[in-house]
Design brief:
This protein has helices at about 5-20, 25-35, 40-55, 60-65, 70-85, 90-120, 125-155, 160-175, 195-205, 205-235, 240-250, 255-265, 270-290, 295-310, 315-320, 330-335, 335-355, 360-375. It is an all-alpha fold and about 375 residues long. The chain has two domains: about 1-175, Up-down Bundle (Growth Hormone, Chain: A), CATH 1.20.1250; about 205-384, Up-down Bundle (Growth Hormone, Chain: A). It is globular, with a radius of gyration of 20 Å. The mean pLDDT is about 85.
């Protein structure tokens, strides 16, 4: 029996996420081991984010020139190349591999998103987004721990071999699914616009601009949690293992996403997002105020993660409902840049804050950011 489109896309997302998550914790640890300085590690990630920001914008152009199927194969090839470079155990291999890995997953994510927008009925996008985030919960919870475990118990190259294996399974699944490029309408026959032209076109459209801003805020919070949550625990004298457990518990709340998605469909995404952002804002700031009492602070952070998972219940539905069909390729590439911006801007701001203030300032700033996001939800159309 033929698989449904939803099953195919969920499977592809699951394999892609597992390939990414199995090296998620290994890469920064490997970078610190090779470069020997946290500041150099931060500089490396900033460079990668900048390269990725511009590389993402080239994907629609490549799709027009060589077709989506070939771009997908290129993404898998970059993934396999990155695992080979990272497995060399050299500083040069680390830097080149990290860049190739980032470009690979960005390319694969954009291509899969294009297929979803073309082949999934518009009224099913919200339900699919909820399912996609739920499927990612397993790899996000297991992958980071598994990668470190494999490196410690088997070999330094083991997590990279696992990522390559998942990449090959992803390519096999894609080929077996028989996905093809959509027939071109007269509007789609035109070549993609120059990135410098469609970048401002994206941000002059209020609904696209709003969807990007809210997604960037959500992603920035998760980035803050994964980096500064363990620091919070270690600074309180509770040890690194508990810091890792904090991140696992926080990411584990993504298993609740189907529940939040159902509530969003029943009561509206506008209400769902307001509640998620507002509660996360209060609990994040509360963690800062309770830093002198670490256990209540830890509880606040886990609950804040649960509140942020409420936001993930909406997925990227706001963007998918707002984008014009004939601009999906270009606009999806710009929209995806929220991940790069969320990984680049907040750490820079937090670094500046920590030059003057103590660690609680990070969580106060994070809570303030989420409060601003909560206020912005009032601009979401009421019919959503």
């Amino acid at each position: 029996m033929a698989l449904s489109k939803r099953t195919i896309f969920v499977g592809l997302y699951g394999l892609m996420t597992m390939a990414q998550m199995v090296t998620l914790t290994v890469l920064p640890l490997e970078a610190f081991r090779r470069l020997g300085d946290a500041q150099l590690v931060s500089a490396l990630y900033v460079v990668v984010a900048i390269i990725l920001l511009f590389g993402r914008l080239a994907v629609p152009w490549l799709g027009y020139r060589i077709g989506r199927r070939h771009v997908f194969a290129l993404g898998v090839a970059l993934l396999l190349l990155s695992t080979g470079l990272l497995a060399t155990g050299t500083s040069a291999g680390l830097i080149a591999g990290l860049i190739c890995s980032a470009l690979a997953f960005s390319t694969l994510d954009i291509v899969i998103s294009h297929y979803i927008l073309d082949q999934m009925p518009r009224h099913e996008l919200g339900r699919f987004e909820t399912l996609r985030v739920f499927i990612a919960a397993g790899p996000c919870t297991l992958g980071p721990w598994l990668g470190v475990y494999m490196q410690q118990e088997f070999a330094s190259w083991a997590p990279f071999a696992a990522a390559a294996a998942f990449g090959l399974m992803l390519l096999a699944g894609f080929l077996a699914a028989g996905l093809s490029d959509p027939p071109r309408s007269p509007l789609m026959e035109r070549a993609p616009m120059n990135p410098l032209r469609y970048l401002p076109r994206f941000f002059v459209q209020p609904r696209l601009r709003l969807s990007w801003t809210l997604a960037a805020g959500r992603n920035a919070w998760w980035s803050m949690f994964q980096v500064y949550g363990p620091i919070f625990v270690v600074a309180a004298g509770l040890g690194e293992p508990l810091g890792g457990l904090l991140v696992s518990l926080g990411l584990g709340t993504l298993w609740l996403v189907p529940l939040w998605g159902w509530i969003g469909r029943r009561h509206g995404l506008r209400r769902l997002l307001f509640v998620g952002y507002a509660i996360s804002a209060g609990l994040t700031a509360g963690a800062a105020l309770l830093m002198g009492m670490p256990w209540p602070g830890i509880v606040c952070l886990v609950l804040a993660a649960a509140a942020t998972s409420v936001i993930d219940g909406a997925g990227n539905s706001l963007f998918m409902r707002a984008v014009h069909p004939y601009e999906r390729g270009e606009m999806a590439a710009v929209f995806g840049s929220y991940r790069d911006v969320a990984q680049l801007v907040p750490p820079a701001i937090f670094t500046a804050l920590l030059a003057t203030f103590e660690l609680p300032a990070v969580f106060i700033a994070g809570g303030g950011m989420m409060l601003v996001m909560a206020a912005l939800t009032r601009f979401i159309p009421r019919r959503f």
